[in-house]
């Protein structure tokens, strides 16, 4: 019997969630509580009601695949595909595995955008069926990671080690949050951590912005980044240089 999953958005013609033109499918539910989260409506694992409208919808595999397949011509022309994001797609792992398997059978490229907070036994099931992992690394310091995301980073870093040992295709993405993740100390700690690998994954730096503030107001969630300001171009260039000097391929944005 086909499983069902809860999806809260399907975004077409995405160009920042992996190679080419993509359809990004946003899964509902996330265990992390990142202070800067751009999708606060994704946190709950349940379908919610706001002002008479449902936030989240149940999808069968066939229903979701039919939505993904509508954009096949764009995938073929641009070497794109579908990206599963969230929330945390691994939090609905059975549904995720089934839809990825169907995409693979039908020659549609897949990407998983993940925080890395997932049980290792679940992660192992996806290594050979997923074309690319967009893997978030926020903070190396375990105390700060717990403070700003409500979750330890022990499992996250261990899972990154595992994926790298399996030669998985990975892009590391770093949300550049002023005075939290975008600090000299943290950026150098991340650089030093991934320098231990035999290969150097691509690094994407994701600048902070306040676009999501309106969502917090809409859904009645306290916005904790109200006093944050955008990084300057000079600051961004400085952080890019830290990685570039060590031979990493750096990209600004996804």
Explain the overall architecture.
There is one protein chain. The protein has 254 residues and is of the alpha/beta class. It has a single domain, classed as Aldolase class I (TIM Barrel). Helices cover 33% and strands 23% of the residues. It has nine helices and eleven strands. The chain has helices at 61-69, 72-78, 93-105, 120-123, 142-149, 154-165, 184-194, 213-219, 233-244, and strands at residues 4-14, 22-27, 48-50, 53-55, 57-60, 81-85, 109-114, 132-136, 170-176, 202-207, 250-252. A nine-stranded mixed sheet has the order 5-1-2-6-7-8-9-10-11. Strands 3-4 form a two-stranded antiparallel ribbon. The model has no long low-confidence stretch (mean pLDDT 95).
What is the fold-level CATH name, i.e. the topology?
TIM Barrel
CATH architecture: Alpha-Beta Barrel
Radius of gyration: 18 Å
CATH C-level class is Alpha Beta
Beta-strand residue percentage: 15-25%
Q: Tell me the number of structural domains.
A: 1
Q: Tell me the span between the first and last alpha carbons.
A: 36 Å
Uncertain regions: pLDDT < 50 for 5+ in a row?
none
Largest sheet: 9 strands, mixed
| Overall average residue pLDDT | 95
**What is the CATH homologous superfamily assignment?**
Aldolase class I
- Number-wise, the strands total 11
**What's the helix-strand series?**
EEEEEHHEHEHEHHEHEHHE
* Strand adjacency order, main sheet: 5-1-2-6-7-8-9-10-11
SS field, number of helical segments: 9
SS-based class: alpha/beta
Q: What is the 3D shape? A: globular
Helical proportion, percent range: 25-40%
């Amino acid at each position: 019997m086909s499983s069902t999953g809860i999806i809260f958005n399907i975004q077409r013609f995405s160009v920042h969630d992996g190679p080419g033109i993509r359809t990004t499918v946003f899964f509902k539910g996330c265990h992390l509580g990142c202070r800067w989260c751009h999708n606060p409506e994704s946190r709950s694992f349940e379908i919610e009601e706001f002002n008479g409208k449902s936030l989240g919808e149940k999808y069968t595999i066939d229903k979701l695949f039919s939505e993904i397949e509508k954009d096949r011509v764009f995938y073929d022309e641009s070497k794109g595909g579908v990206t599963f994001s969230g929330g945390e797609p691994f939090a609905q792992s059975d549904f995720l595995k089934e839809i990825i398997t169907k995409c693979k059978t039908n020659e549609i490229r897949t990407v998983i955008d993940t925080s890395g907070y997932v049980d290792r036994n679940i992660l192992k099931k996806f290594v050979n069926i997923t074309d690319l992992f967009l893997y978030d690394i926020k903070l190396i310091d375990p105390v700060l990671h717990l403070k700003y995301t409500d979750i330890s980073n022990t499992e996250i870093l261990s899972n990154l080690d595992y994926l790298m040992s399996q030669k998985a295709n990975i892009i590391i993405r770093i949300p550049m949050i002023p005075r939290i993740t975008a600090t000299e100390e943290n950026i150098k700690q991340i650089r030093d951590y991934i320098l231990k690998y035999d290969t150097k994954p691509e690094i994407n730096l994701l600048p902070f912005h306040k676009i999501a503030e309106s969502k917090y107001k809409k859904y009645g969630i306290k916005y904790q980044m109200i006093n944050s300001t955008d990084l300057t171009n000079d600051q961004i260039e400085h952080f890019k240089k830290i990685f570039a000097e060590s031979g990493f391929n750096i990209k600004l944005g996804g």
